[in-house]
Write a structure and sequence with these properties.
This protein is mostly helical and 154 residues long. The chain is built from 6 helices and 3 strands, in the order ααβααββαα. The protein has a 3-stranded antiparallel β-sheet with strand order 1-3-2. β2 and β3 form a beta hairpin. α2 packs across α5.
Length: 154
């Protein structure tokens, strides 16, 4: 089987192309793709607890801490104690963070709009279903079950 015939190769190639595109757009406003995703996952009106951000993005807490420190240094966010649970910290957006969040939101919307115009709704629905099923299989660890023998065909 050639690499371009495998599921993982095609997912990786597509994601790298999307990531490069987002990275180029993010560079225009002095952020990274990761920062853009964090900005999009912070509630613009009430902020978001730090504990909720990492799982949304699939990040380890250590990586998120480093990312948040960089965002704070850039003046995009600030931290405040949670009003309900003083042990918890909420991440809030500065005016600059709100501006960059809106640009990031528009970039994502434009990408989705172009894709939805170019690909038939039924094909997109099939893509979403397949992506969901693959994710579920991986998360349930069905990929390398006891029935699998390396080198064998399924």
């Amino acid at each position: 089987m050639r690499p371009e015939e495998t599921v993982d190769y095609n997912i990786k190639v597509a994601w790298h192309a999307i990531s490069r595109m987002y990275g180029q757009q993010a560079a225009h406003i002095d952020i990274t793709t990761s920062i853009g995703f964090v900005l999009l996952n912070i509630d613009p009106s009430i902020g978001t607890p730090t504990t909720k951000i990492a799982p949304l993005l699939g990040l380890e807490a250590r990586s998120l801490t480093r990312l948040l420190k960089g965002m704070e240094a850039k003046g995009l966010i600030y931290r405040v104690p949670d009003e309900v649970d003083r042990r918890s910290v909420r991440i809030r957006l500065t005016d600059l963070g709100l501006e960059r969040r809106e640009i990031s939101r528009q970039t994502v919307r434009q990408f989705n709009h172009v894709v939805q115009r170019a690909i038939a709704p039924a094909d997109l629905q099939t893509f979403f279903n397949v992506a969901r099923l693959i994710t579920e299989m991986v998360e349930r660890k069905e990929i390398f079950s006891a029935d699998y023998t390396p080198g064998s065909d399924f």
